[in-house]
Amino acid sequence: MIETERLRLRPLTDADTDWWVRLHADDEVNRFVGSYTREQAAARLGAIQQQWAQRGHGLCAVELRSTGETIGRSGLNWWEEFGETEIGWTFARAHWGRGYAMEAARAVLRWGFGPLGLKQITAMIHHGNDASVAVARRLGFTPLREDTVLDRPCVVYALTRDDCPTTP
């Protein structure tokens, strides 16, 4: 579990299936990350749990420490086809504009570059996702390459441990 001033990040579990479906049902939220049926969400959460077991990291539910409400997801995702660990963040629209993505991502970077010992972390951001580009740039990420993720073009941003301003 990772804690910040306002947030708690914990591994996602099967118990998060209905929440995952609700999060991705919002057209503004799923514009870049897609929507899920309950069956698809259960399969995705199963893959996330498998990644936790195999790699010691994965995506996390992001909760408000003050209330325990789950407001989004963030964490690290290993992409076998790219040989890269990606940071990601997705939040319920009601919680946009409050700095939660930055706060969660900074904590995830400290975790990834610190205890996990990663040398580089990427952020795969689909074209038009200006809010995520702004977060990535504020975190110190720079463009690495153009690529295709989930059948859609994106820019892959990268940050190395040595260039990370939040590295312990």
From TrEMBL:
Keywords, A to Z, come to: Transferase
Annotated GO MF terms: acyltransferase activity, transferring groups other than amino-acyl groups
> Keyword Nuclease, does the record have it?
no
What InterPro entries has UniProt attached to this entry? Acyl_CoA_acyltransferase (IPR016181), GNAT_dom (IPR000182), N-acetyltransferase (IPR051531)
Answer yes or no on keyword Calcium: no
Residue ranges of every copy of the N-acetyltransferase domain listed in the record:
7-162
Q: What is this protein called?
A: N-acetyltransferase
Q: What is the lineage of its organism?
A: Bacteria, Bacillati, Actinomycetota, Actinomycetes, Kitasatosporales
